[in-house]
Amino acid sequence: MDGMHHDHGSMSPPMSMNNTNNTGTMMHHHNMMHMTFFWGKNSEILFSGWPGTSSGMYALALIVVFVLAVLVEWLSHCKLMKPDANHVAAGLIQTLLHAIRVGLAFLVMLAIMSFNGGVFLSLK
């Protein structure tokens, strides 16, 4: 090769200036993102630090996610335009409603990507 040494046997992450302190020792970060479904109320859903560690806030977060999913479905199936409406105004309103529906669907997708079992069940 070109003289570079590659250590394939080590399982430790490479040291960089971002994860070391002034003495060169590794600092531990507690920002863990789950990549499989897990159960528990200590989860971050949609925003950093939300819903926190309180079980009441976790229940509120599940209700908010459920309401977001219901809004997405309602916007997908409702007919808010009258047949005799102005075509330009109807097109603009439909475009606005579609943008809102896609934005809410994106938030629902981000919530399910928290991989929390409670969030998954509230969206099912």
Main traits of this protein?
mainly alpha, 124 residues
Describe the structure in your own words.
With 124 residues, the protein is an all-alpha fold. It has one domain (34-123). Helices cover 45% and strands 0% of the residues. It has 3 helices and no strands. The protein has helices at 55-77, 87-112, 117-123. Helix 1 packs antiparallel against helix 2 and helix 1 runs parallel beside helix 3 (117-123). The radius of gyration is 23 Å and the shape is elongated. It starts with 54 loop residues before the first helix and ends with a helix. The relative contact order is 0.15. One of its GO terms (molecular function) is copper ion transmembrane transporter activity. This is Copper transport protein. Keywords: Copper, Copper transport, Ion transport, Membrane, Transmembrane, Transmembrane helix, Transport. It is a multi-pass membrane protein. Its main location: membrane.
Question: In short, what is this structure?
Answer:
With 124 residues, the protein is mostly helical.
Helix content: 40-55%
Query: Distance between termini?
Result: 53 Å
Radius of gyration computed on alpha carbons: 23 Å
Q: Summarize model confidence as the mean pLDDT.
A: 77
Quaternary organization: single chain
- Bulk shape: elongated
Largest sheet descriptor: none
Region (Disordered): 1-20
GO molecular function: copper ion transmembrane transporter activity
Biased composition (Low complexity): 10-20
Protein name: Copper transport protein
